[in-house]
């Protein structure tokens, strides 16, 4: 099976079983993208879950569990305010998102980011850089 087969037969984006890259620009609070990282969509009562959402495709059931928590919070009125990449009043995205987004938008940046994220000694640094406040 080729990536094209996966894309056409199973509707798996670009043949990626995780429905998106597992790179810093699409991890944690930016998966699948910052505006949809809380499992909610602009369409009322339409939620995302699956390997394209946090924590990715390698964690069985966690995506659905997290989406269910968002649904229950919305249904009971206990949902926290939704944060997007630009805050209220059009504020800039947190510096981590701007730096990581700029870095990960280039091929060399993705190469460096991938290698940095895989280094045990840099885990705290990459976790901090990927954090969304």
From TrEMBL:
<protein>
    <recommendedName>
        <fullName>Amine oxidase domain-containing protein</fullName>
    </recommendedName>
</protein>
């Amino acid at each position: 099976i080729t990536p094209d087969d996966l894309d056409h037969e199973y509707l798996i984006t670009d043949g990626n079983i995780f429905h998106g890259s597992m790179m810093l620009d699409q991890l944690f609070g930016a998966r699948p993208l910052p505006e949809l990282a809380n499992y909610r969509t602009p369409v009322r009562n339409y939620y995302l879950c699956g390997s394209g959402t946090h924590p990715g495709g390698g964690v069985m059931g966690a995506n659905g569990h997290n989406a269910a928590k968002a649904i229950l919070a919305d249904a009971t009125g206990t949902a926290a305010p939704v944060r997007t990449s630009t805050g209220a009043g059009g504020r800039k995205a947190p510096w981590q998102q701007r730096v990581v987004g700029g870095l990960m938008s280039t091929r060399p940046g993705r190469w460096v980011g991938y290698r940095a994220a895989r280094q045990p000694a840099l885990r705290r640094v990459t976790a901090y850089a990927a954090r969304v406040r």
